[in-house]
Amino acid sequence: MSSSGTKAQFTAALLLERHVRLSFRQLQTELKRIVPQAVLEGWDGPVTDSAADPGIEMLSLDGEKLSVLVVDTPAPAAVLQPGPFANLLWPNAEKEAGHHKAHIIVVGLGDPVDQAAALVKARAVTLTAAALTRLVSTIGVTWADAANLVRATAFAEMTKQIGSPSASVVPFWVRVMLSKGDIGRDGQPMIKAGTLGLHIFGLRELGYAAASLDPGFLIQHAYATADYLLSSGRRLADRETIGIEGQARFAISHADASDFVSFPTNRLCLQIDE
């Protein structure tokens, strides 16, 4: 249901220290530990035979159809490569995760009909990945739709509240990227920022015009804005202004793409009080 027409993947992958074997009951038990009300079933419904192990390849978690595949080879090399923009959450990912021996893929099946359904599907995939990360020795976790890769320890911290129906995992689902712009009044390069990942929830990406702002502030502002948009369902209007009087305020304009991605974008331009 992406706003660009590009098919969303709703896919997470775990990079593993070693080869593993997992049973349905192991995953079910860990999910119950994290979220007591979670209902994990087989593809065709409840697994009532305590001795049966239907495997984890085709599952249903709280009604969301999932596929979990354990692959005894390393993930494709492209998973580790950040592309033209640095991986801000894990700068040394290629070096630190390059030795992984196997990987697990978690795929949410079916196309969500709206933003609310997309959030439910994303949470189901993320909750499953969170349970798996706690079961096996994991180095890193990736979210395909944002080309995002984070350390397993960071992912565990992000997903502490994933069991809540209203919880989001913005730094996992949405990648923030930075690049240098023109030289500012202070003689230093201005900074541009952009997101990748909001489009799978039917929202415009964020694209910050070059400004003399602290990179850390831009990263936090992008995550906070993304979280607000996902949790509220609100869409930013063309020509509106967001921010707090006396602090950083941004004028919004709609664009077909940003300097970072080719998806419809909310362009944010810093308003300077003269």
Question: How would you characterize this protein structure?
Answer:
The protein is of the alpha+beta class and 274 residues long. It folds into two domains: 11-168, no CATH class; 175-270, no CATH class. Helix content is 24%, strand content 28%. It has six helices and 13 strands. The chain has helices at residues 24-34, 93-97, 115-135, 152-158, 170-173, 215-232; strands spanning 11-16, 40-42, 58-61, 64-71, 102-108, 138-143, 148-151, 175-183, 189-196, 205-211, 241-243, 249-255, 265-270. It has a seven-stranded antiparallel sheet with strand order 2-3-4-5-1-6-7. Strands 8-9-10-13-12-11 form a six-stranded mixed sheet. The longest helix has 21 residues, at 115-135. 37% of the residues are buried.
Number of domains: 2
Structural class: alpha+beta
Count of individual beta strands: 13
Rg (CA only): 20 Å
How do the strands line up in the largest sheet? 2-3-4-5-1-6-7
How would you sum up the global shape?
globular
Number of helices: 6
Q: Low-confidence runs (pLDDT<50, min 5 residues)? A: none
Beta-strand proportion: 25-35%
| CA distance, first residue to last residue | 42 Å
Note the main sheet.
Answer: 7 strands, antiparallel
Oligomerization category of the chains in this entry: single chain
Helix and strand element order: EHEEEHEHEEHHEEEHEEE
How helix-rich are the residues, as a percent range?
10-25%
Integer average pLDDT:
91
Topology:
Layout: E1 11-16, H1 24-34, E2 40-42, E3 58-61, E4 64-71, H2 93-97, E5 102-108, H3 115-135, E6 138-143, E7 148-151, H4 152-158, H5 170-173, E8 175-183, E9 189-196, E10 205-211, H6 215-232, E11 241-243, E12 249-255, E13 265-270
Parallel strand pairs: 10-13
Antiparallel strand pairs: 1-5, 1-6, 2-3, 3-4, 4-5, 6-7, 8-9, 9-10, 11-12, 12-13
